[in-house]
C-alpha cells in the first residue's frame, strides 16, 4: 500500500459518526484512513423520467434511511403529464433534523440523458455523481470537480428478466441497490422495506429484491465503496416514536378521527390522494357488524356539484367535506357563499398548487390564501386553518369539523402540494377521545321546554344562533333554509334594516371565531426589534432559517399563524416588535395583505419576503432575504 501523502484527512471517532477531527498527517504507512466528508448530513437528488417507475425505488431509499433512525425527508418534483418528461426526487438527511430544500446536492443519481448537464449543475464541488453509462456521449460531459460512478444499467438488468417492460422498472431498483451499498445502508433494512411495500405481491417482492441485490453486488465489486464520501450511520431508536408520512394520508386519517361520514369530490392534483386514502381507510375501519359501510364517498360531475352535496349533507347533520385545489376552489365560490350566509357547516380541504389558471399543476404554492379567506361575492369571510406538516393535517381535521359546527359555517383547510404529497417525519399521532363539539343543536327535548324557536336569532350575544337537524320530532323544529336575505325566523325578507342586522350578527360571530381558532405558535426573543410571521409549509424552512440567523447573532422572534381570523396573540406579537417580516410563498404577499386589511394601523411595520417559483421554500434563500431586509431597516 503506498504511503499517504501529507494533508488533511477526516477521521471518524464514534460509532454514530457525530464527531470528527482533522489530522495533519506527514506520513502514515501502516493504515489508510478514507476521506469521509459527511455522514448524517447529505442531500441526494435522483433524476429520472416520469412514468419510469422510479417513485417506488425512491421510497425504498427514504424509508430505509428512516428505519435507520436518521432525520430524513423526501420531496418529489414531477411533471403534470403522465410520462416522458423529467422528474426529480430529493432526499435530505441532516443530523440537526432540517429537511427543507437545499440550493445544492451532495449526491446526484443521473438517469436522464435530457437533463444530464442541468442535473450536474445542482451538484456541489466535491460531490458524488452516480450516472447511467449507457447514456450516449456523457463521459466527456462529466464535471472534473466531482467523483463519478458510471453504471452500465442495461448490462446489470438484462439477466433479471426476459420482459423489456419489467427491465425498465427494475432499473430503478438497481440504482436503489447501488446507492444503498455506497451509503452503507444495511441490506436487511432495505429488504424489510421492500417486503413491506409489496407485501401483497410476492412475485414483485422477489424481482425487486433481485434487482437491489444486483445493484449492491455491482457496487461492491466495481467501486471502492469504503471511500464513498457519504455514509448513513444508524441512530438506533431515534425514530421509534416518529412517522414518515405525507400530509394527504395524514389528513385522511384525521377525517376518520373527526367523524367525517360523507365526502364528495372531483379529482384534481394534488388533492386526489386525500379522498382516495380516506375511502380506503374508511372501507377498512368504518364498516358495521353487518359488513355495511358507515360512510359515503361520491365523485361529482364537477367541483360545484361536489361542494353543493357537501352543504346538503352538512345541513342534514353529517360531517361532510370535499377536497380540491385552487382551480376547483374557484368553482366552489357561489356555494361557499351559501354555506356562509345560510350558516351550514361544511369543510373544504384545499391542497394548493401553482396558479393562476392551470399554472404549474404539480408544483407547490401558498397562492389560495386570499381567495379562500373571502371566497364568494359580497361581504364573505371564512375560517381558514393552516397546517404546517402532516401531523397538523391529522390534528386539524377534527378541529375543522368542530369549528364548522360550532360556528355553523364553512371551514377551509389550506394544505399544499409540499405538505400533501411529500414525505415528512412527524411525531406519532395521538387519537383525541373527547366528544365532538357539534355546537348549538336543539333536540326534541330542548324544544319541548321552549315557547318558540327562531333559526337566526342571536340568543346568547355571540352571533351564533341555534339550529335543528332534519327529522327532529317537534312542531317548532322546521324552518326553511335559503340563500336569500331572511329574518330571524328564516322567512324571506328584503327589508334593508333586517338585512343589515343579520350581516352585523355574522360579523359578531366572526369576532367569536377569533376566540375559538388555534392560537399562533410564538417564540419571543429578548429583542423587540424584529419579528417574523409565517404560516403553513414555510414552517419547514423557517426552522432552519432561525438556526442560520442564530449563527449570525441576529435575534428574531417568530409567530406561526395557524388560522384565520387572527387570534388576539397575533396582534399582540405585532405590537411588541418594531419591524415585522411576513413570509409568503406567493407573488403578491397575500398574508401581508390580509394582516394589513385586519390591522391597518400597523401596516407601516409590515415588510414582505417571498418566494413563488413553485419549488418548496429554500431556507438558505430565505435566510438571505431576511438579512437583506434587515440591512435596509
Question: Can you describe what's shown?
Answer:
This protein has 633 residues and is α/β, with parallel strands linked by helices. The protein has five domains: 1-33, no CATH class; 42-227, 3-Layer(aba) Sandwich (Pyruvate-ferredoxin Oxidoreductase, domain 3), CATH 3.40.920; 245-427, Rossmann fold (3-Layer(aba) Sandwich); 444-516, no CATH class; 521-632, Multifunctional 2-oxoglutarate metabolism enzyme, C-terminal domain (Rossmann fold, 3-Layer(aba) Sandwich), CATH 3.40.50.11610. 36% of the residues lie in helices and 19% in strands. It has 20 helices and 22 strands. The strands form five sheets. The chain has a seven-stranded mixed sheet, sandwiched between helices. Strands 4-5-3-6-7-8 form a six-stranded mixed sheet. The chain has a five-stranded mixed sheet with strand order 17-19-18-21-22, with helices on both faces. Strand 14, helix 13 and strand 15 form a beta-alpha-beta unit. The chain is globular, with a radius of gyration of 28 Å. Residues 1-38 have low confidence and may be disordered.
Low-confidence runs of at least 5 consecutive residues: 1-38
The radius of gyration over CA amounts to 28 Å
User: CATH H level of the largest domain: which superfamily?
Assistant: Pyruvate-ferredoxin oxidoreductase, PFOR, domain III
Helix/strand structural class: alpha/beta
**Widest β-sheet, arrangement of strands:** 11-10-12-13-15-14-20
The total tally of domains equals 5
- Tell me the total number of β-strands: 22
Specify the helix fraction band.
25-40%
From the N-terminal CA to the C-terminal CA, the straight-line distance is 60 Å
How much strand?
Answer: 15-25%
In CATH, the architecture of the largest domain is 3-Layer(aba) Sandwich
Overall geometry: globular
- Overall mean pLDDT: 92
CATH domain fold name of the largest domain: Pyruvate-ferredoxin Oxidoreductase, domain 3
Amino acid at each position: 500500500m503506498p504511503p499517504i501523502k501529507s494533508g488533511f484527512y477526516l477521521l471518524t471517532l464514534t460509532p454514530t459518526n457525530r464527531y470528527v477531527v482533522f489530522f495533519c498527517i506527514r506520513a502514515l504507512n501502516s493504515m489508510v484512513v478514507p476521506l469521509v466528508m459527511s455522514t448524517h448530513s447529505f442531500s441526494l437528488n435522483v433524476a429520472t423520467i416520469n412514468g419510469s417507475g422510479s417513485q417506488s425505488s425512491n421510497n425504498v431509499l427514504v424509508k430505509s434511511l428512516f428505519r435507520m433512525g436518521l432525520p430524513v425527508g423526501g420531496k418529489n418534483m414531477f411533471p403534470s403529464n403522465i410520462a416522458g418528461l423529467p422528474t426529480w426526487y430529493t432526499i435530505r438527511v441532516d443530523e440537526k433534523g432540517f429537511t427543507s430544500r437545499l440550493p445544492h446536492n451532495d449526491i446526484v443519481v443521473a438517469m436522464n440523458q435530457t437533463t444530464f448537464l442541468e442535473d450536474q449543475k445542482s451538484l456541489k464541488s466535491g460531490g458524488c455523481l452516480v450516472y447511467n453509462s449507457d447514456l450516449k456521449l456523457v463521459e466527456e460531459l462529466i464535471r472534473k470537480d466531482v467523483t463519478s460512478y458510471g453504471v452500465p444499467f442495461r448490462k446489470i438488468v438484462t439477466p433479471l428478466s426476459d420482459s423489456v417492460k419489467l427491465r425498465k422498472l427494475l432499473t430503478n431498483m438497481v440504482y436503489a441497490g447501488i446507492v444503498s451499498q455506497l451509503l452503507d445502508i444495511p441490506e436487511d433494512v432495505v429488504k424489510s422495506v421492500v417486503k413491506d411495500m409489496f407485501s401483497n405481491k410476492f412475485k414483485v417482492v422477489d424481482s425487486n429484491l433481485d434487482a437491489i441485490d444486483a445493484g449492491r453486488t455491482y457496487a461492491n465489486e466495481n467501486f471502492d465503496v469504503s471511500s464513498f464520501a457519504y455514509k448513513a450511520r444508524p441512530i438506533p431508536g431515534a425514530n421509534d416514536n416518529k412517522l414518515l408520512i405525507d400530509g394527504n394520508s395524514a389528513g385522511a386519517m384525521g377525517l376518520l378521527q373527526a367523524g367525517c361520514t360523507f365526502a364528495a369530490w372531483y379529482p384534481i392534483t394534488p388533492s386526489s390522494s386525500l379522498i382516495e386514502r380516506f375511502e380506503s381507510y374508511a372501507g377498512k375501519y368504518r364498516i358495521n357488524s353487518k359488513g355495511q359501510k358507515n360512510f359515503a364517498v361520491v365523485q361529482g360531475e364537477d367541483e360545484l356539484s361536489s361542494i353543493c352535496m357537501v352543504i346538503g349533507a352538512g345541513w342534514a347533520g353529517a360531517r361532510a367535506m370535499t377536497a380540491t385545489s385552487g382551480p376547483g376552489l374557484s368553482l366552489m365560490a357561489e356555494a361557499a357563499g351559501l354555506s356562509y350566509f345560510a350558516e351550514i357547516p361544511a369543510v373544504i380541504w384545499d391542497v394548493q398548487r401553482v396558479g393562476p389558471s392551470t399554472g404549474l399543476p404539480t408544483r407547490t404554492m401558498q397562492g389560495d390564501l386570499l381567495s379562500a379567506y373571502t371566497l364568494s361575492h359580497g361581504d364573505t369571510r371564512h375560517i381558514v386553518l393552516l397546517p404546517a406538516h402532516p401531523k397538523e393535517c391529522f390534528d386539524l381535521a377534527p378541529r375543522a369539523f368542530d369549528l364548522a359546527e360550532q360556528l355553523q359555517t364553512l371551514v377551509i383547510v389550506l394544505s399544499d402540494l409540499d405538505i400533501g404529497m411529500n414525505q415528512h417525519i412527524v411525531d406519532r399521532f395521538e387519537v383525541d377521545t373527547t366528544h365532538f363539539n357539534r355546537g348549538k343543536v336543539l333536540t326534541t327535548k330542548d324544544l319541548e321546554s321552549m315557547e318558540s324557536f327562531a333559526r337566526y336569532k342571536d340568543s346568547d350575544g355571540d352571533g351564533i344562533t341555534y339550529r335543528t337537524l332534519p327529522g327532529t320530532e317537534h312542531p317548532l323544529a322546521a324552518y326553511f333554509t335559503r340563500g336569500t336575505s331572511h329574518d330571524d325566523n328564516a322567512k324571506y325578507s328584503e327589508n334593508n334594516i333586517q338585512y343589515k342586522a343579520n350581516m352585523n350578527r355574522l360579523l359578531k360571530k366572526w369576532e367569536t371565531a377569533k376566540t375559538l381558532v388555534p392560537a399562533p405558535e410564538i417564540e419571543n426573543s429578548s429583542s423587540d426589534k424584529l419579528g417574523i410571521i409565517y404560516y403553513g409549509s414555510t414552517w419547514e424552512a423557517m426552522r432552519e432559517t432561525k438556526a442560520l440567523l442564530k449563527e449570525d447573532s441576529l435575534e428574531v422572534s417568530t409567530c406561526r399563524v395557524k388560522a384565520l381570523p387572527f387570534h388576539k396573540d397575533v396582534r399582540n406579537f405585532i405590537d411588541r416588535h418594531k419591524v415585522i417580516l411576513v413570509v409568503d410563498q406567493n407573488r403578491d404577499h397575500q398574508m401581508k395583505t390580509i394582516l394589513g386589511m385586519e390591522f391597518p394601523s400597523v401596516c407601516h411595520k409590515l415588510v414582505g419576503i417571498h418566494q413563488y417559483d413553485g419549488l418548496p421554500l429554500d431556507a438558505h434563500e430565505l435566510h438571505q432575504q431576511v438579512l437583506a431586509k434587515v440591512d435596509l431597516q
